[in-house]
Amino acid sequence: MNSESLHWSLFHEGTKVQVDGLTFTQIKGVLKTVDVSQLNQWYAWHEGLSEWKLVQSFPELVGNATPPRHLPPFPPKNPGAAALDETDKPLVQVFEMREDGTRVNVQLDKQGFVDLRWNRRFLKSYRVQMAARGLAVDTQTVDISMGGMLLKDSLPLEFPEAFEANLTHPSGQKLRITCVKIPPHSGAAWNRVKFSLTAETELILRTWLLGSDT
Fold it and tell me: Which helix (H) or strand (E) holds 6?
């Protein structure tokens, strides 16, 4: 049975979160973000198996896993100062060419590693539907991260500060997330929101961002 043609499920023993219907690409993408020392808390299953198995039982999923590289913290801004906050780490701006010929900004830290911070933005388009106070918005994401999203259309001024949004993946999978409006700069549109994720929505969103949009 070809592993790449199967649909997979993941289960985390610590949080008791289970996610079903993952493609081979999606499940590999999720497991690449897991610290090697934590893999013994993850179980996988696919059609044809009689029981769940530790992900280490599937070399096609984690066969290339290597211990994470432990780097020293960034030096303080001046003697006696605290180490730089995650959002203050110095970054070098480079560009990546997309298939359509456009350039996309890619953040690299000064040691040459791709920036995989929590707020890394992905240029992915998902349908977003929201309704509150008798108002309805049906739009798309311009970019999205684990921390929030930029909407193609602005939110009505009357929209509440916190609300629920229904996101739809191109595959048809749906995800409901609690959102909070981010105040715009003077004169800008109200079209960026931040997420309040649960353990389950965090795992599902991570599979979306790291997997293919099919």
Answer: none
Any domain includes 76:
no
Note whether 149 and 182 are same-domain residues: yes
pLDDT, tens digit only, all 214 positions of the chain:
677 788 888 888 877 777 877 888 888 878 877 778 888 889 999 988 999 999 999 988 887 554 444 444 444 544 443 333 334 443 334 444 445 555 455 444 444 434 434 457 888 999 999 999 899 999 999 999 888 999 999 999 899 999 999 999 988 889 999 999 988 876 678 899 999 988 778 888 888 887 766 6
Domain containing 112 equals 84-117
Pairing of strands 192-196, 127-132: unpaired
Residue 178 lies in a domain: yes
For residue 131, what are the CA distances in angstroms to 6, 136, 158?
Answer: 36, 4, 11
